[in-house]
Amino acid sequence: MLAIRSHSTDSDAASEFRITAASPARQMPSSPSVLVLYRLKPAILADLAGRFRLLDSHASPLPLDAFLVAAAAGDDPPRAAVVPGSGVVRIDAAFLDAVPSLGCIVSVSAGLNHVDLPECARRGVVVANAAGIYSADVADYAVGLLIDVLRGVSAGDRFLRRRGEFFSPLGSRLGGRRIGIIGLGSIGSAIARRLEAFGCIVSYHSRRQKHGVSYGYHPTALDLAAGSDVLLVACALTAETRHVVDRAVLDALGSGGVVVNVARGANVDEAELVRALAEGRIAGAGLEVFEDEPNVPAQLLGMENVVLTHHQAVFTPEAMADLDRLVVGNLEAFFAATPLLTPVLFFD
User: Fold this and answer.
1) Least buried of 19, 136, 301, 330, by fewest C-beta within 10 Å?
2) Quick check: bond before 294 cis, omega within 30?
3) Catalytic residue status for 264
4) Active-site residue among 264, 272, 288, 325?
């Protein structure tokens, strides 16, 4: 089985990523071409345009397939691509066949389920992601969702606006809760540190046990759920973690349990989650990701014990500034034949 490691999150309890300011714009001697498939801000586009020759899909009237064909057929076909992390563009064999000149993929997301990593490795295409830069903001957001579910902040706001009265049902205390984190990478570790400060008892399930951390380890998500009051999903989406939270895990969590998902929608069996909430088999959920984004199951919209937001935890001005600098840094490193800042490493 192919394993994947992001270099910047290799430590067992990785700290939040911080990137220093990019160097002043300097045009590469040959102005290498870069395919831009992500809608970058005007400022970063201008910065990149001072360093590279940009082939920006959002500035072209062509549909994506035709745009890729035109880019590949040019006198200076692109050697690197900046791609979104939403899955709108899948980096697979068909994509790489369409633009065979590519030697580097720079994804603006930490997750890589939209990139066929074995195929990239087979072709010698290096991949960089946004590992680490979102950790602090996503961790803050996850804790905010959990507090909102437990204390009924959003529900109380709705109640007050509708009726002009105080929200009567009591909320629940966060301190002392048993928190089970699925995925103790950079984001999961940042969440754990924050919840420790609230007096929570943290344990985790991950692909393998982490050395040098004090949290209790559970070899399966089912075992973790059975010993937790809250399941917080912060793992990558892979074939192994698709629906890692299924009916059995939800039942093990129990009627007082809460699920918070800031990973990918498909990490949770959404249909089973809706049923568990509707039947009172779990107590609540905080969700900013969904299986069929941007679509949200209609049943969830009417549940007062569920907090829902768009997939937006990463979007802070600070994270976006770090992302801009990281994209520039990874592209410059690739074209200078030096190590990428955030390489995704492949090993059997």
Assistant:
1) 301
2) yes
3) yes
4) 264
